[in-house]
Amino acid sequence: MKRIGVLTSGGDAPGMNAAIRAVVRSAIYNGVEVYGIRRGYAGLLARDFVEMSLGSVGDIIHRGGTILRTARSEEFKTKEGMEKAVNNIKQLGIEGLVVIGGDGSFRGAAELAKRGVPTIGIPGTIDNDIPFTDYSIGFDTAVNTVVEAVNKIRDTATSHERTFIIEVMGRESGHIALYSGVACGAETILVPEKPYTIKGVCDKIMSGYKRGKLHSIIILAEGAGNAFEVGQKIKEMTGLETRVIVLGHLQRGGTPTAFDRILASQMGGKAVELLLNGVSDKMIGWVKGELVVTDLEKIFSAQKPLNEELYNLASVLAI
Amino acid sequence: MKRIGVLTSGGDAPGMNAAIRAVVRSAIYNGVEVYGIRRGYAGLLARDFVEMSLGSVGDIIHRGGTILRTARSEEFKTKEGMEKAVNNIKQLGIEGLVVIGGDGSFRGAAELAKRGVPTIGIPGTIDNDIPFTDYSIGFDTAVNTVVEAVNKIRDTATSHERTFIIEVMGRESGHIALYSGVACGAETILVPEKPYTIKGVCDKIMSGYKRGKLHSIIILAEGAGNAFEVGQKIKEMTGLETRVIVLGHLQRGGTPTAFDRILASQMGGKAVELLLNGVSDKMIGWVKGELVVTDLEKIFSAQKPLNEELYNLASVLAI
Amino acid sequence: MKRIGVLTSGGDAPGMNAAIRAVVRSAIYNGVEVYGIRRGYAGLLARDFVEMSLGSVGDIIHRGGTILRTARSEEFKTKEGMEKAVNNIKQLGIEGLVVIGGDGSFRGAAELAKRGVPTIGIPGTIDNDIPFTDYSIGFDTAVNTVVEAVNKIRDTATSHERTFIIEVMGRESGHIALYSGVACGAETILVPEKPYTIKGVCDKIMSGYKRGKLHSIIILAEGAGNAFEVGQKIKEMTGLETRVIVLGHLQRGGTPTAFDRILASQMGGKAVELLLNGVSDKMIGWVKGELVVTDLEKIFSAQKPLNEELYNLASVLAI
Amino acid sequence: MKRIGVLTSGGDAPGMNAAIRAVVRSAIYNGVEVYGIRRGYAGLLARDFVEMSLGSVGDIIHRGGTILRTARSEEFKTKEGMEKAVNNIKQLGIEGLVVIGGDGSFRGAAELAKRGVPTIGIPGTIDNDIPFTDYSIGFDTAVNTVVEAVNKIRDTATSHERTFIIEVMGRESGHIALYSGVACGAETILVPEKPYTIKGVCDKIMSGYKRGKLHSIIILAEGAGNAFEVGQKIKEMTGLETRVIVLGHLQRGGTPTAFDRILASQMGGKAVELLLNGVSDKMIGWVKGELVVTDLEKIFSAQKPLNEELYNLASVLAI
């Protein structure tokens, strides 16, 4: 193997740069050249390539976002687009491709693999909704960003004796909400995977106030309801003042945590090792404290379950 | 003077605790007792008092919010409420009152002063919209909170080549928007004090993109337009993807900056000194690097102007 | 079981409060009373007890240190001290004890267990040097603290083109050095487990400079040499300006990361469950993504190995 | 004026990049070209120049350090060096020079001015020891860095009931120590400007402990004594456990605060305005809330006094 490519695709996630760095340095360490493909599959079609050196990934391990940038590409999803992509890869002499991204990005990767391009996926998405990996790159940072935000809100919530509803990312999954909710000691955690009633939420708030609590923090995954509606209904039912904060894109940014940098570094190194060993059409996961390799195909039909033990613990601790 | 009182009122602001600490310690240093009045004027009516000791304000200088809490009181604005408040103060033997808060809180303070209660106001509000002081307690922290948030957004904005509209606090004034906008190097700063057109905003964005910029940051004071509408219009006019973040109550919280802690400490110490010297019905301001005392009455009829020099500099630097 | 006790012992670690909270709330949830024992074994001897309520552990999950405090006790290590401790526990009606701390604290716990006090250990130490657990409470926070410090130093290192030696905690183990070194992208990581020569370190630095690097970051565990001596020798051998920073106790403090809070919450909940099930003389570990229980005795004779894979990866990435 | 130059010299300070950006953008806005001179006066002699564009200062406002880097130059202090520097400036067509740095850097600037190079100085040093300006660029960030460090130490200090001595920068001046000490609520602040006795320090600590304090924080400017010796003597005299932290170069780094970015932006804009107006041999200061211009010569013979009011307030508040 003489030359590989690396791209980031889908929503950006903190730690993607650490993964790019690890891919580039591991490859060069093994005598393999690396081309960076800018703006994901769109750049693959537009031949937006750049040769990567050791220095080109210097001083990026601590930066959020992705130096290769990311974009959507409708053309890539067409038959013509796919063929053009394969041609570009071949013309450039790229003999292996590392795709850092989420579910959608891996579908593209699997298509390329079918067409003879050796491809390895690295899970990078703050949502942590990719099955067959306990953590995806960016999740730990996003959870810590929520936790820091709630730290700030806690002060003002106590001062005003208010109920705060914090909406976090997660349209179809409550991973960020659950982990950050436990970490913040939130009174209530609302996730799409678990039905709830406003009355139940209000009962919990009121029992806390009766016990002398001066504020109440509710963490709501965006897929579990509209934060403003939830806030309004709680106000109507309890008479308490509620405030809503939608954290939104704040969760995507920021310097990655140590955990995300290390995870990304390990996955990047492993991706190169796999390509060198002739492996293709796989995703690298972090499962029970180890790097584990899974067929890309298996990912598309599976769903990542919520951490039930942690969800139950949350109820106990918010007694 | 044997005993004074201190309360926080209106929206909470980081640094209020440092001011409370300074009032308490300066008073005790001068042999004067201090009562904390909880929940602002509401607590004054409800006799929600607590005697403060040196230890009661230990380990609070770094905490956001206010340990005395704050609340609104409609009753206090009535004639009966005001009389009740004055009676409570006299019965408790409070011979001077320090009110930490904003414009609305000072109106109450001025009324009490008229009724014979020596009263000193300390400006505490993140909005920095109080005239006769260059800085109010909490402003520096709020500006830094915005700056940190934009740091995070910058990563993801660059990665996706997007335009971000960040809505910050300021219904009638653009102080937070202006200071944080300059500090972030925002392309565009929209404040209520200055008219603007969406077309002008779009022209600026497009000229940046033509020069090779990968993202655009717009800071919008809440009083200068609805962030979502502005984002939608920019998208329509430029074709660029826009994203909106409303920072909201995040700006109220957090551990206060060194500047806010020092400012609050100085103002708290000065408030006690003034009461001991028989001064009343005044606000302490920080004007051109010095503590300056102003009649409360003057504040209600004045308006704090936007920093024009800084506004002009912002345009030059965002060339 | 009607009543249990909880104490923190040894060096404090961020996340200990989250563990205390989880012990208290899980116990109360299960109808069991909890006594907090202040200042570790010293407080056990001095009967420095406090009954814990739901509210007593409110608003502590985000605080560094330990609200129960910690101290050393020579008396506890004597036969008389041990008997006194057992008596105090029995007189107070404590039927189970949770000990949050490190190796030394667990020796005391094992002694108590031998004398009939059901005891569960929770690993809390920033050093992460306890075997049979992949992570101890506080390690993730400490590593992130080092990473943040290096972020700051990186700026000034680049500006001055200097070599920085950062000494981190770890007298006998290089866990903090290794994890933070990988996360920072340090050029060189020096740990007690791995021999090294100054010449080797200098060769690496010089090859980086030849490649155009503007700074060099060396992470040194305190057990791997004196930072000032290492700095001096590098200067002599390379002629480069070196600077030394000893992070010291900074690493113990700070608000715990989400990871540490969640880990601590899980371990605290599990400790109560084990006591309720009649288990004793065990430590709870986090092994390969799961809570795993180990005999306290086994811990004393084992050593926690350095993560060899990560150590090797570090060399590859610092090429 | 067609072309100006800008350089950073001496120790780096957070905010220097914001000043560089402001110089470059203000100049280009006014139709003037800008050359960056790398590595201070050393680069001036070595002709290490780079033309600056609007884009070259994009995305740097939030970065610590200085993109132009800094270095010492012994050659520049010689007569030959100075002549060479003037020649290089003239050959490059530089008609005005902005020097961002401290006292030593300004001496060089004044020499250049004498030789016919219009020169303006911008005070950039974390120490804040330059007279005729209330704040120099980087001071606010450094003070906040100390405050954050003490926040972390406070947790562990309380948990162990220990006395911490924190050594901060300031060989001949106690500005960082005083401001950070007030902001942290330190029990004791030791600065070179004020004599003290260890006995006095110990009396203060003991009176705090008697009042129930669980920890004691002493902020020591490096010029006011050796932190380890002070710690040892306190231990001997009081029997209390002491710990020492030397913050060192941590204080130089980090992303600049909003205050430092705004100050730097204003000074950078003003420097260009002054050069365009034919002004030379001056430093821009921030005095009582305004930009004020002072002869460079006056700076060398003056000393910046400690803020006496703040020093006195510190004693009152640490009662």
Automatic annotation (TrEMBL), chains A, B, C, D:
Catalyzed chemical reaction(s): beta-D-fructose 6-phosphate + ATP = beta-D-fructose 1,6-bisphosphate + ADP + H(+)
Annotated pathway: Carbohydrate degradation; glycolysis; D-glyceraldehyde 3-phosphate and glycerone phosphate from D-glucose: step 3/4
Binding site for Mg(2+): D103
Gene Ontology annotations of biological process type: canonical glycolysis; fructose 1,6-bisphosphate metabolic process; fructose 6-phosphate metabolic process
Phosphofructokinase domain span: 3-275
Molecular function as annotated in GO: 6-phosphofructokinase activity; AMP binding; ATP binding; fructose-6-phosphate binding; identical protein binding; metal ion binding; monosaccharide binding
SUPFAM superfamilies xrefs: Phosphofructokinase
Residues at which ADP binds: R21, A22, V23, V24, R25, R154, G185, A186, E187, R211, K213, L214, H215
Task performed by this protein: Catalyzes the phosphorylation of D-fructose 6-phosphate to fructose 1,6-bisphosphate by ATP, the first committing step of glycolysis.
Name of the molecule in the record: ATP-dependent 6-phosphofructokinase
Gene for this chain: pfkA
